[in-house]
Design goal:
The complex is a heterodimer.
Chain A: H1 4-15, H2 17-34, H3 44-54, H4 58-76, H5 78-107, E1 118-122, E2 146-150, E3 152-159, E4 166-173, H6 175-181, E5 187-188, E6 203-206, H7 208-215, E7 225-230, E8 237-244, E9 261-264, E10 273-276, H8 282-296, E11 308-311, H9 312-317, H10 321-352, H11 354-362, H12 367-408, H13 423-439, H14 453-458, H15 468-504, E12 514-520, H16 529-547, E13 551-554, E14 564-569, E15 577-584, H17 588-592, E16 596-599, E17 613-617, H18 618-624, E18 634-641, E19 644-647, E20 651-657, E21 671-675, E22 684-690, H19 695-709, E23 714-715, E24 719-720, H20 726-763, H21 765-773, H22 778-811, H23 823-850, H24 853-859
Parallel strand pairs in A: 4-9, 6-8, 15-21, 17-20
Antiparallel strand pairs in A: 1-10, 1-11, 2-10, 3-4, 3-7, 5-8, 6-9, 7-8, 12-22, 12-23, 12-24, 13-22, 14-15, 14-18, 16-20, 17-21, 18-19, 18-20
Helix pairs in contact in A: 4-12, 5-10, 5-12, 5-13, 10-15, 10-20, 12-13, 15-20, 15-22, 15-23, 16-19, 20-23, 21-24, 22-23
Chain B: H1 11-21, E1 25-26, H2 27-37, H3 49-59, E2 62-68, E3 74-80, H4 82-107
Antiparallel strand pairs in B: 1-3, 2-3
Helix pairs in contact in B: 1-4
Classes of the chains: A alpha+beta, B alpha+beta.
């Protein structure tokens, strides 16, 4: 057993090698000099090598020698080396970026303790109502399955100390949240079980953001009293701060959902998240919780499917899965094309070195020595490419991580910084690099090297014919590249058409330069909802005067599907049509650019005590009153609630508006518009204004106008309506990405085809020269190569189309107005590929046909 | 294993250990001593001592020291370490055991 002493002696030898070897040489020389018969000493060189090998570093010497040789060989062909390293680096960069994004969203867990055991509780599937009294669920009864019920209830406060008021986000939680999520404070203590009794003094934990921004990270915050007013009205409350939350803590669907105050929850609320005990299977937990729920539930419908648990991580990233899978497949295809290209180049290079290889074989090199030589080259290329590729990745991710988060729609669970090259990414990409470095150089070896040495040495110049298997190998690789590139082209083409179709689609309103912002009023300041209504009225008037553009309110934003209600007509109760219902302020249609087909839009008189009126969309009018004028008819919408259905008042139709799509594939464009009335508004309002001015200036004006009316009113940051069009944004992002990928792959494929053809041309110089000298026109020469190339292109196209059949399924949900097997797209991308391939073949062939045949024959 | 012209593999190591047991020697002296002690029966390719010595150095059974001889030349002497002494005993015992077994096989009628 080699022990520590032996290992340390080995290392000492390695570090002092040259000195020790020299001394040994001298020692052996001295010994020899002393001998009467020096011949009996033995072969000094061999003995020195054996002495060296004893220390066990022989393999290192071989490796260094191989690498040095490989480096020398690579330096001799700078073109090949440069192209290989750059294309591999790009391939690695794309793969590493994709892996980094996958890592940040899918591989790394949510930033809580034992996040794999965190589950979201769904009392009912989305849509139907939840059973009642779920807050009475006894979690103690299922404590053998559920380790911590994580109950939380968000609440917004106003903090008015020290001069200005700001809204802060509070979270009332049960005791389970602290332990269940593993919340550790950076100062002070966490909430303890004694804090959760009604009799104890009110305490709270302060969030890192609030502590920094408002209190300047003052350590004396622990122990201070803080006084806040709840937003919904009610008495001011006072809390003693007992601890500070860590900087990265968040709770909610978004990692932007920061928590400013963490308070004990003292009343019963529904629990929407649990942490299960180790080893408890999800289905079993669902059963037990369903049982416990049944004992306290009220209002259960017979079809109630029971309580479902959804992994918290999955809930966060589940929607992103199709996009992530699509991007991964695209990046893999690019890497495959890059590797195929590299293999082709290596094969070509190996062909050129036949003579050198023949000599080596004659000197005793076996196949495995050649393999080692090629693998050494592969290792050098891959290491250089990996280094460059990773640097490129860091730069790419540094620049693009925020863009990626925006495009995916939600930020990475551990923050933007998580999308970076970390240990896992390095491991995966490194393993890929090793795989490629070892596998790709083996491809040239698939060709038989058992050649007759004499034949090879006898050949003059570089002209020689390759064996059939080598040609097949080359053609196979090229076909592979063509197939991969075609798949990318097709995906790209489909997305481009989707994006174009979306842009062409008339959504029914004009979103250009339209800006939306939210207003929040304090309930305590207004006795009833008519006060809110008056505020909104005055606000829109004054702001319109300032911005010189109409300001309108609406209770539902565009690009989100309207809630569906049953819409009845002309007193015919119970025979409603499904449609969307929305409430809007006066001037909505003109502000949004929605044309009116008949009648008028709402004005200020329709707001308050006037007769109830409505505007219907064209489709709704056609459906309710086919073939008859709709103006003057009666319509009402019926709201479904848990308690039953509540019909609204009967309204007279005063206008017919053009159809408006909320989404590109909006199936239902039958909508009814009702005016906002004092009774129907709450303290939240969203207003819209169309303006060229920067968002910051609109924000400033809005805040000024609001403060002029009510100093407690809060205006949120305005956003452009266009930025809320997630569907178009998602498709354009994917399109841009895939176009980039397809471009790189296409370029490489064309390069590969060109290289192979150029090589083939050079090989057959004599043949071409003879043909031309015998009178063949240049055209015929070119056609010769085109014919051969066409076979390979055809094979590649066929394989590509077959592969695309599988690959486009991934894109299906992203497509709009175009079928996955759209013939026009398939035809045009195939044509593009053919054109690119043919020109890559044509150019070197044409150059060959122009060469002077006599000169070529002379060179021979 | 260095070629030892007829010596079973591993015995060269044992011989060197034995020779050094009496005191430190340099390479040429070790070769001479082996020839002397065996009455020239064991003819060793003298150069093959050196790989064997390297192995002994690696295993820590022998330590080397440089000294300047009277003639002014640098001479490296090898000395046995305590671990080397122990190894010598182990190898001796093993050799005796094996050769006794071989003798038993050969000499049984």
């Amino acid at each position: 057993m080699p022990n520590i002493g032996e290992w340390s002696r080995r290392v000492w030898y390695l570090l002092n090698r040259s000195r020790i070897d020299a001394a040994l040489g001298r020692e052996m020389e001295d010994h020899r000099a002393l001998m009467a018969d020096p011949a009996r000493f033995g072969n000094a060189r061999r003995l020195r090598e054996q002495s060296h090998d004893v220390w066990g570093w022989g393999w290192l010497d071989h490796l260094m020698r191989d690498l040095r040789l490989a480096a020398r060989m690579l330096r001799r062909t700078p073109g090949f080396t440069a192209i290989s390293v750059i294309s591999l680096a790009v391939g690695f960069a794309l793969t590493a970026s994709t892996v980094a994004v996958l890592n940040a969203y899918v591989l790394r867990s949510l930033p809580y303790d034992h996040a794999d055991r965190l589950y979201h509780v769904m009392y009912a599937p989305p849509g139907p109502w939840e059973p009642g009294s779920m807050e009475a669920l006894d979690w103690g009864a299922v404590s053998d399955v559920v380790e911590f019920p994580i109950t939380a209830s968000g609440v917004t406060f106003y903090l008015s100390e020290g001069g200005y008021t700001q809204t802060i986000r509070g979270l009332r939680t049960g005791p389970g949240l602290i332990q269940g999520l593993g919340v550790r404070t950076v100062a002070g203590r966490t909430l303890e079980s004694s804090d959760f009794t009604a009799a104890s003094e009110p305490v709270a934990l302060i969030g890192d953001g609030l502590w920094r921004d408002r209190y300047g990270s003052d350590p004396s915050i622990v122990g201070r009293q803080i006084r806040v007013e709840p937003e919904g009205g009610g008495r001011a409350e006072s809390f003693q701060i007992v601890g500070v939350l860590p900087p990265a803590f968040y709770f909610g669907r978004d990692s932007q959902a920061r928590v400013d105050l963490l308070l004990p929850l003292l009343s019963a609320r529904r629990t929407y998240m649990v942490r299960l005990r180790d080893g408890v299977p999800r289905e079993y937990a669902e059963q037990r919780i369903t049982q416990a729920a049944r004992t306290v539930a009220t209002g259960l419908t017979p079809e109630w499917s029971g309580v479902r648990l959804e992994s918290a991580h999955w809930r966060y990233v589940g929607q992103l899965q199709p996009i992530l899978v699509g991007v991964t497949v695209a990046a893999s295809l690019v890497l495959v094309v890059v590797c195929a290209n590299l293999a082709v180049l290596m094969v070509l290079r190996a062909m050129r070195r036949q003579k050198e290889i023949a000599v080596r074989t004659a000197l005793g090199a076996e196949r495995r020595h050649l393999a080692r030589m090629l693998v050494a080259e592969g290792v050098l290329l891959c290491s250089a490419a990996l280094t460059i590729g990773l640097m490129l990745t860091r730069w790419l991710l540094g620049a693009l991580a925020p863009v990626i988060e925006t495009e995916l729609g939600r930020s990475a669970p551990r923050g933007t910084d998580a999308i970076a090259v970390d240990g896992t990414v390095l491991l995966i990409v490194g393993a890929l690099g090793v795989l490629i470095a070892l596998a790709v150089p083996f491809l040239p070896l698939l060709a038989p090297w058992q050649r007759r040495l004499a034949d090879d040495l006898r050949r003059t110049g570089n002209a020689s014919t390759d064996g059939r298997s080598v040609r097949h190998l080359r053609s196979g690789l090229i076909a592979f590249e063509v197939a991969g590139t075609l798949i990318l082209f097709i995906g790209c083409g489909l997305l481009l058409r989707s994006a174009a179709a979306m842009l062409r689609t008339d959504l029914g309103f004009d979103a250009d330069r339209l800006v939306r912002a939210r207003l929040v009023l304090r309930a305590a300041d207004y006795p009833d909802s008519s006060g809110f209504f008056r505020f909104f009225e005055q606000f829109s008037e004054r702001l319109a005067a300032v911005t010189d553009a109409p300001v309108v309110f609406s209770n539902w934003p565009p690009f989100f599907d309207l809630p569906t209600q049953s819409i009845e007509a002309d007193g015919r109760a119970g025979q409603g049509v499904k449609g969307g219902a929305i409430q809007i302020g006066p001037g909505y249609f003109s502000a949004f650019g929605i044309p009116l087909r008949a009648g008028r839009e709402f004005s200020r008189i329709d707001g308050a005590d006037a007769l109830p009126v409505a505007v219907v969309s064209e489709t709704l009018a056609r459906r309710l009153w086919p073939g008859e004028p709709a103006l003057g008819r009666q319509v009402r919408s019926v709201v479904q609630t848990q308690g039953g259905s509540t019909p609204g008042p009967w309204r007279t139709v005063v206008g017919i508006a053009a159809d408006v799509r909320q989404e590109y594939a909006d199936p239902n464009v039958a909508d009814v518009y009702a005016p906002l009335t004092p009774g129907s508004v709450g303290r939240f309002g969203s207003f819209y204004v169309r303006s060229d001015r920067p968002l910051a200036s609109i924000y400033g004006d809005a805040r000024a106008v609001a403060a002029g009316l009510d100093p407690h009113a809060v205006v949120d940051l305005p956003r452009t309506v266009v930025s809320e069009n997630r569907q178009l944004a998602g498709t354009t992002f994917l399109t841009t990405l895939l176009t980039g990928f397809a471009g790189i792959a296409g370029f490489l494929a064309v390069l590969g085809i060109y290289g192979v053809t150029a090589y083939g041309v050079q090989q057959r110089q004599r043949e071409i020269a003879i043909r031309m000298a015998l009178g063949a026109p240049a055209r015929q020469v070119v056609r010769l190569f085109l014919k051969e190339g066409a076979v390979v292109l055809g094979a590649g196209l066929a394989a590509g189309l077959a592969g695309a059949a599988a690959a486009v399924r991934i894109l299906e949900h992203q497509l709009f107005a175009v079928e996955p097997f759209d013939p026009a797209t398939l035809a045009s991308t195939s044509a593009l590929m053919i054109a690119a391939g043919v020109s890559a073949i044509w150019w070197p062939a044409r150059r060959a046909s122009r060469a002077n045949p006599v000169l070529s024959l002379k060179e021979g | 294993m260095p070629r030892t012209d007829g010596l079973p593999p591993g015995t060269l190591i044992m011989l060197i250990l034995r020779v050094l047991a009496t005191g430190p020697l340099h390479g040429y002296a070790i070769a001479q001593r082996i020839a002397l002690l065996s009455n020239d029966e064991l003819s060793v390719e003298e150069g093959s001592l050196y790989p064997a010595l390297q192995k002994l150095l690696l295993k820590g059974w022998v330590k080397a020291a440089s000294a300047v001889s009277d003639t002014g030349r640098t001479v490296r002497t090898y000395r046995l370490t305590p671990a080397g002494r122990k190894q010598l005993e182990i190898e001796r015992a093993e050799y005796r055991r094996v050769s006794a077994a071989i003798s038993a096989v050969l000499d049984t009628p």
